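Kindly go through the following sequence and its backbone structure tokens. Advise at your convenience whether the structure tokens fit the sequence:

___
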Amino acid sequence: QVQLVESGGGLVQPGGSLRLSCAASGSVFSFDVMDWHRQAPGKQRELVARITSGGRTNYADSVKGRFTISRDNVKDMVYLQLNSLKPEDTAVYYCAALRAGAPYWGQGTQVTVSS
């Protein structure tokens, strides 16, 4: 059974930074891809950032240059560094993973950007 547990969300002022963490049960290297998604109130869930088992990354246009996804294969962790945060980044952020075609999701962590 795969479990993904997010942490690191909170309230931050515009322009501030946060680092989200996702702890995976089992080796993150075994996952084909690991993602961060987000869902704002009244909006559909969207893909924010992805990292493949080979280390390739890609980002939504709205976060390019501000967010960075990374992976620690020793600690079985995936991170999302959020910089230059804007109010429109407010959402629940979810860690997700794909292995052999099967998707797995964490429970989400709230990020609120407000002055």
